[in-house]
Structure formats: C-alpha cells, structure tokens
Specification:
Its main location: secreted. The protein is α+β, with helices and mostly antiparallel strands. It has a single domain (about 25-130), classed as Immunoglobulin-like (Sandwich). The protein has helices at about 5-25, 95-100; strands at about 25-30, 40-45, 50-55, 60-65, 75-80, 85-95, 105-110, 115-120, 125-130. The strands form 2 sheets. A 5-stranded mixed beta sheet has the order 4-1-7-8-9. The protein binds 2-acetamido-2-deoxy-beta-D-glucopyranose (2 copies).
C-alpha cells in the first residue's frame, strides 16, 4: 500500500469511530413496574439539563433522547421516591458504565424489589440496584 491509501484507510477508521459517539441519539426510559397501583416520583438531570420532577403512575414510563458527549463524560442521574423508598439516587446513563452496555438505549424497570436494567449487548434484564434497607 502506498502512503495516500494508508492515510485514506486511517481517515475512514477515524470517521467510523467518531460518528457514532457524536451523532447517535440514545434513548433512556424508566418505567414504573412497582405494581399495586403504586406511584413513584422521578427527578432526572445532567450537569446541563434538569428534566423535571415527574409523578409516574403504575405502568407509566418516562424517557428522553440525548447524544453522548464528545468528551465521554455524559452522565444522567435520577432521584426516585415511592412508598417504601425515599430519595434513592442512581445513574440512568453513565458513559463509562453504559456506552457499550446500553448500545442504543438504556431501559430501566422500577420494581418493588429493586431496579432492573436492560443489557443491550445480551438482551437480558439485569438486577442492578437494591433498595436500601
Ligand atoms: C397516583 O397519582 C395520581 C395522579 O397522577 C393520583 O390521582 C393518585 O391518587 C395517586 N395514587 C396514589 C396511590 O397515591
Ligand atoms: C458533557 O460534558 C460536559 C463537560 O465535559 C459536562 O459539563 C456536561 O454535563 C456533559 N453533558 C452531559 C449530558 O452529561
């Protein structure tokens, strides 16, 4: 291979690596599956955005779209409250943990035993957060 084509290959690889990070929209969704008609209150934010306080009834879902930060620092965190749990803090999307795990999106189920997250790589729901005792 001569130099110009090597450079071309390098450029193509770099574009291929950076476009998904810059342009891909990801979706986060959080669903109340507490059952028994239980409501929950959810407040999610990043350093730049406050997504507001939402009352979610049993079966309701709250979600939003975002693009990963070019600097790889994207973090959305939430505070959650329901009958048995006060001010539970968790990360709904953290670049380091979720960039690969939540390929196109992060889905969460809020259940009476804790919080499940969908692993986009395996397609399995994983039990990620226990409620505090
Ligand atoms: C749940 O929230 C709705 C309003 O969205 C309210 O009408 C209902 O009474 C609440 N249920 C309980 C059990 O607090
Ligand atoms: C993106 O990164 C900047 C700084 O690196 C940070 O201030 C901002 O909160 C990040 N955005 C999100 C959505 O995490």
């Amino acid at each position: 291979m001569n130099h110009p084509s090597r450079l071309l290959v390098l450029v193509i690889i770099l574009i291929g690596l950076s476009i998904p990070v810059l342009a891909d929209k990801k979706h986060v969704s959080i669903k109340n599956t507490l059952g028994s008609g239980k409501n929950m209150t959810l407040h999610c934010q990043s350093a730049d955005n406050d997504l507001g306080v939402h009352n979610l009834e049993d079966g309701d879902e709250f979600g939003w779209d975002f693009s990963d930060n070019i600097s790889g620092t994207t973090l959305f965190f939430c505070d959650l409250e329901w009958e048995s749990v006060q001010e539970f803090h968790f990360d709904a999307y953290s670049f380091g943990r979720d960039f690969v795990r939540c390929d196109t999106g992060c889905s969460w189920l809020i259940a009476s035993e804790g919080i499940y997250g969908l692993n986009g790589q395996t397609g399995y729901w994983e039990f990620i957060y226990n409620w505090p005792n």
